[in-house]
Every structure is written in C-alpha cells, then in structure tokens.
C-alpha cells in the first residue's frame, strides 16, 4: 500500500460546511486591506516567506489573502486540491505541522511540493462560531523547519484574530443585507398602500355609481306624489335598476375572486365541452356591448365541428370574457376581432413513445383577441420588450410564458387609473386571468401599440374527450355563481306528462320550502315562483325550516347556506332519516359554502341565489322533475 495514496475527504465535501463557506461570501472576492495587513504581519512575526488565508471548497483552495506565493499562483489566487495541504487541516479539524513534506506520509505525493516549493508547513483551522472549518491559516517555508510550541501558539492566536475580523465582516454584511431588505420592504409596502388606495378609490366609484342609479330609480318608482308613470318610462327605470344590479354583482364577484387566486390550480374541474359553443357563450355579452357602442365585432372560428375537449368551463369563460370585454371597453371606434383555432405542436424528441393513440396530446387551443383601441397600459414595473413588425414598432408583454412563469400583476395594480376610472372596472381582471391561464398550463401574450390597438394571444394545451371512457373523464365542473350541478339521480328522472297524471287526481301547484333570513330575497323569490305557478313556503331560520320540512308536502327544499354556518353537518342526514325524500338544494351566493366550510356534496344540488327570474327558475325546475312522496296517492 502506498502511504502517500490520497484518501477520501468527507469533511471537505460536507454540504453544511460548504453552505457556510458560500454564505460568508468569501470565495472569489477581491483582497481586503485589513486581512492583507494581518497576513503580512503574520509572515514577519513567524519569519516565513509565505503566509496564506486559504479557503477550501469541494474542488480547490482559494487564497482570500496571501503573501510570498510565486506566479502564476500569486495572480490566480487558487490551486486545485491536488496542490493543497490545507485540505488536511479541514479534514482533521486540527492543526497540521509538517517539518519536511517530502518525508511526511500524509503529504509526500502532494503536487505543491514541486510546483509551489512547499517543504515546511504550519496550518491552523479557521473555525466559525457554528463549528465549521472554512480552511486553514498557514505559513510555509521552502526548507525543512522544526516548528516551536511558541510559533504554533502565536499562529493560533493570529488565527483567532483573523476569525474575529471575519465574523465582524459577516455581521456587517448581514446588517447591510437586512437594511436593504427593510428598505425594499418599506418601498414595496408604500407602493402597495398607494396601489391599494387607488384600487379602493376605483372600487368606491364602481360600487357607488350603480348603487346611486338603483336607489334613485327606486325613489322615482316609489314616489306616491308623482302622477301615474308612463309604462315605457316605468320599464326603462326597472331595466336601469336591473342593469346596475348585475353590474354590482359582477364587481362583487371580482372582489371575491381575489380570495381564490392562490388555489385556482386545485379548483380546476374539467368536463367534455364544445369549445366553439362555449366561446360563443363567453362572447355574447362583449358582442352586445360592442353593438351598443357602434363597434364591429367579428368572431372567426374553424372549430364548429370539433369533437368535445376537456375544459374547465368556468375558468375559460372568465378568461375569454375578460379579454374580449377589455377589447370592447378600450375601443372607441373600429372593430374587435376574435379568432379561435387549434394548433398541433411537434412531438418533443425526448418524449417516451408509449404507443398511446391520444391524438390530442400535443394540440393547443389558440384564441386571438384583437382591437383598434387605445392600446394596453402596462402596470408600473412590468417588463415590456420592443419588436419590429410590418406595422411598425410594437410592444410585447409575456403575461404567462410557455414555462408557466408570470409577469406578476398584483390585484391592487390596475394600470392606468384614469383609464380604469373613465372606462369602468376594478382592474383585477387581468391579475385573475393571469393566474387562471397559469393554472391551466397555458400562455398569454399581449402585443400592443399605444393609440393603435392590442392583440392578446391565448394558448391552452387541450385533450379530446374520449367517448365511452367514463373512467378517464375528469371530475365534474366546479359550481359557480350561475351554474347548476348535475346529479345522475336527477338527470335520469323524467318530467311527468299530462297523460301520466293518475285519473281522478287534480294537478296541484308544487310547493317549495325555502330557508332564507332575508325578507327582500324571500319576497323576490315568492314573486318569481308565483308567475311560474309554484307555491313558496318561507322559513326564516333553520329550526322553523326543520319543523316545516317534516310535514312532507314539498317538491324541493332550498336552504340559504348562511343559515347552516353554525350547524352540525349531520343535520341534513337527520332530516332525511325523518322521511324527507324531496331534493334538498343549497342556495349559494358566490362561495358561501367554501367560506363557511360547508360540504356541498351533502346536498342534492346547488343553485345560485336569485339574480334574475328566468335563470333562477331554470335552475329550480331541474330539481322539480324528481317525483317525491307528495306524488303518492
């Protein structure tokens, strides 16, 4: 066995030691005057030609400070570990005393003997307060030398002084870093406060305006001193109230969506969808607004006959409505163009070939929304790059790139406050759209020219829905403000026809029991149902509803989720055990169930609180098709 054969160095490669070494930011740094002065003094006191402060990492030793090294080592300030005595100080965690390296079994094969002229060596470990050895503080002689106890003690004291200097340096660096962080945090907080105040000013404007319209029109309708109001004027006033009511609900919904931004990816629910039809649905309102403003709105699609795709309908609707709605909002004249197509990306060369016949694995849905408006106004601090096109210089923002990275827009950073105040909107739609696109693994790019227009390009990876493969289908669509859940036991039920009514029985109006603590909502629902020949029985609290429900005369039971926030989840099970067989339906108001921690799966379905008669009745009637005990003779 060769006594000079190299051994493994577990301490040198200790990850925690290396982390501490890099944390102290000493490697590859220029010399510092205070350390150089101490190194020169060390060489003079110990009467050696060479003195080094040597830092040892996993591959080399770096000389933070040195005196007396020959070239090229004096300039490069480092050597590989094959030339290092100091690595043994790190490994031993103790001093290394070498009289004649040529005769020492530990270092006799070290290349520093021939190339650096190292014969005698004395090194002391540089130990941090946390106990890690950074390297060696050492002196070197070019001839054999017996190191005295006094010299060893002197170098030990000098090493302690060096470590005190390094610890002071580290404390000063940490203090400077924390001061920078405090300054950055203060600047960010001040910017956040300004943006939030701006946002609140917009919210105040956006909420007060429709409220003023609603209350003002109500005053006119309720003024008893006014002569009989012309029917057309009455209709106009009511339509104004309705329009502003929907506007308020949209604004409140946008604010509530802020609370979901961090969980969007987990909330996505995919269902087979006709993407052409869904896109037309999303564009219906922007088209209507464009018509009212005298704009041309074009929708070009090549996907009319495309098989169903798996898609989160709610998320897709929000994205398309925001992009198209903004295009209309910020266009005063000209047109808005929307193009829908499907692209096929090339198969990645490193993709494993598993024999799958899934033809959609590399398909991308592409939606382009282009307008002739004022051009996108980027929020402060957003990265914008210039590109030269046939139309001239344009500006591009990658809101979500292909890698899923965000050019982050905060929910309180709505861009140009003047535009938002004059055009309407809370300025949070873009932030929400970003996160929806990211959650759907898509990309979103805005290309714009100020005063000329904006082009938004959305790309979403899509998968075709396979017929006859229910096991492969994702979970059903998440319930939203205007959607109704689908339940197999209800979907399979058939609406009785007049011929199926038993002879001798007179058809009666169905009775619906509703738990609702708002008198206004209760009166509104009663008016809705009366026109549909449905009788409403109202309970103002859960105890009253429980008592009425046990009578067994109802075709459906509606429960405002807010009544259940302090009630045991087993309450519904107890109700069913008492013989209640009709559908029990949750009456939700944009996330009440999630906010109050209520398990919606315990209900037979969920519908939104009433916002419009047609939509509410459509949702309710889907639950009245199920025969219940009241139909039995």
UniProtKB/TrEMBL annotation:
Compositionally biased tracts (Low complexity): 469-479
Top EC class of this enzyme: transferase
Molecular function per GO: histidine phosphotransfer kinase activity; phosphorelay sensor kinase activity
Entry keyword annotation includes Membrane: no
EC number: 2.7.13.3
Keyword Phosphoprotein: yes
Region (Disordered): 468-512
Catalytic reaction list: ATP + protein L-histidine = ADP + protein N-phospho-L-histidine
Domain Response regulatory: 511-624
Record's GO cellular component terms: plasma membrane
PTM annotation (4-aspartylphosphate): residues: 560
Gene3D superfamilies tied to this protein: 1.10.287.130, 3.30.450.40, 3.40.50.2300, Histidine kinase-like ATPase, C-terminal domain
The protein, known as: histidine kinase
Classification lineage: Bacteria, Pseudomonadati, Planctomycetota, Planctomycetia, Isosphaerales
């Amino acid at each position: 066995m060769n006594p000079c054969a190299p051994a493994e160095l577990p301490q040198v490669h200790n990850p925690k030691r290396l982390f501490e070494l890099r944390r102290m930011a000493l490697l590859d740094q220029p010399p510092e005057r205070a350390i150089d002065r101490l190194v020169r003094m060390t060489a003079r006191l110990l009467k050696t030609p060479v003195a080094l402060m040597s830092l040892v990492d996993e591959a080399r030793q770096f000389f933070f400070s040195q005196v007396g090294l020959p070239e090229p080592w004096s300039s490069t300030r480092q050597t590989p570990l094959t030339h290092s005595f100091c690595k043994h100080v790190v490994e031993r965690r103790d001093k290394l005393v070498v009289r004649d390296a040529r005769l020492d079994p530990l270092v006799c094969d070290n290349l520093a003997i021939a190339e650096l002229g190292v014969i005698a060596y004395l090194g002391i470990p540089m130990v941090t307060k946390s106990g890690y050895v950074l390297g060696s503080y050492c002196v070197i002689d070019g001839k054999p030398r017996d190191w005295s106890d006094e010299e060893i003690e002197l170098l030990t004291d000098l090493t302690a002084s060096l470590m005190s200097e390094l610890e002071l340096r580290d404390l000063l660096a940490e203090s400077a870093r924390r001061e920078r962080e405090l300054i950055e945090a203060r600047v960010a907080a001040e910017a956040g406060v300004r943006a939030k105040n701006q946002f609140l000013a917009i919210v105040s404007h956006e909420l007060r305006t429709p409220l003023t319209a609603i209350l003002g029109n109500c005053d006119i309708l309720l003024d008893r001193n006014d002569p009989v109001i012309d029917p057309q004027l009455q209709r106009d006033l009511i339509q104004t109230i309705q329009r502003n009511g929907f506007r308020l609900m949209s604004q409140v919904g946008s604010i509530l969506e802020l609370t979901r931004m961090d969980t969007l990816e987990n909330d996505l629910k995919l269902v087979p969808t006709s993407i052409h039809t869904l896109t037309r649905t999303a564009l219906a309102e922007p088209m209507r607004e464009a018509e009212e403003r005298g704009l041309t709105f074009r929708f070009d699609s090549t996907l009319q006959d495309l098989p169903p795709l798996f898609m989160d309908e709610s998320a897709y609707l929000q994205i398309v409505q925001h992009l198209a709605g903004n295009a209309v909002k910020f266009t005063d004249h000209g047109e808005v163009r929307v193009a829908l197509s499907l692209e096929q990306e090339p198969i990645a060369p490193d993709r494993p070939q598993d024999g799958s016949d899934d033809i959609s694995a590399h398909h991308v849905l592409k939606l382009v929304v282009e307008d002739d408006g004022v051009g996108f106004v980027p929020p402060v601090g957003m990265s914008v790059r210039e590109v030269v096109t046939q139309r001239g210089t344009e500006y591009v923002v990658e809101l979500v790139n292909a890698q899923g990275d965000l050019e982050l827009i905060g929910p309180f950073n709505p861009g140009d406050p003047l535009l938002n105040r004059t055009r309407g909107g809370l300025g949070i739609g873009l932030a929400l759209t970003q996160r929806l696109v990211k959650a759907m693994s898509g990309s979103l790019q805005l290309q714009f020219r100020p005063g000329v227009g904006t082009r938004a390009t959305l790309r979403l990876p899509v998968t075709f829905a396979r017929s006859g493969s229910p096991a492969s289908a994702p979970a059903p669509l998440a319930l939203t403000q205007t959607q109704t859940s689908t339940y197999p036991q209800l979907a399979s039920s058939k609406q009785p026809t007049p011929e199926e009514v038993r002879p001798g029985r007179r058809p009666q109006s169905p009775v619906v029991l509703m738990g609702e603590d708002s008198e206004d909502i209760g009166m509104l629902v009663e008016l809705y149902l009366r026109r549909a020949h449905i009788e409403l029985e109202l309970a103002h609290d859960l105890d009253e509803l429980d008592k009425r429900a046990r009578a067994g005369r109802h075709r459906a039971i509606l429960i405002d989720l807010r009544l259940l926030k302090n009630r045991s989840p087993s309450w519904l099970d107890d109700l069913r055990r008492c013989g209640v067989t009709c559908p029990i339906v949750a009456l939700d108001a944009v996330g009440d169930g999630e906010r109050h921690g209520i398990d919606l799966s315990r209900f037979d379905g969920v519908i939104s609180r009433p916002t419009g008669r047609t939509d509410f009745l459509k949702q309710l009637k889907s639950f009245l098709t199920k025969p219940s005990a009241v139909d039995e003779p």
